[in-house]
Specification:
By secondary structure, this protein is α/β, with parallel strands linked by helices. 30% of the residues lie in helices and 21% in strands.
Length: 146
């Protein structure tokens, strides 16, 4: 586990479970999140803090099917202000971002977010056929590509 930078520009690393706790410090200038999705429907903003993995999304889909349906049907909004805030809170200097699958997701939308924060985000192209029907179980477009 890596904690945020402290005032002396150090990162403290703590060994994982089963290995005991061992602290070490090393100078760092950058901390990069190498897998982040940008763009999120506004209906997801209130629950975004609790949804971090596919398992979380699946659980949310079961817990609140109406809310989940609203999220996957609503067009995406730019959530990069929230992302930058969370990055700053956790000492992350940069993120490699890709589009979040869903309604309104596109590489062009991602590019517009990267243009807003060119010193913080690096965008990755994602094939357009992978961006729709998030969570619906519809894999027809992917099957057609085989």
């Amino acid at each position: 586990m890596v904690s945020p930078k402290n005032s002396s520009n150090q990162v403290t690393q703590v060994a994982g479970a089963g290995h005991g706790v061992k602290n070490a410090s090393m100078p760092t200038r950058y901390m990069i999140d190498v897998h982040a999705h940008a763009g999120l429907p506004k209906a997801a903003f209130p629950v975004a803090e609790e949804l971090h993995s596919a398992l979380d999304w699946g659980g949310y889909r079961s817990k609140d099917p109406v809310g989940f349906a609203a999220i996957v049907s609503e067009p995406q909004a730019d959530n990069t202000d929230l992302m930058i805030s969370k990055m700053d809170q956790n000492g992350v200097t940069h993120a490699i971002i890709q589009p979040t699958p869903g309604n309104g997701s596109s590489n062009e939308f991602l590019a517009s977010m990267v243009k807003r924060w060119p010193d913080r985000f690096f965008g990755i192209y994602r094939p357009e056929f992978l961006m729709s029907a998030a969570g619906s179980g519809d894999v027809s477009q992917a099957k057609e590509r085989r």
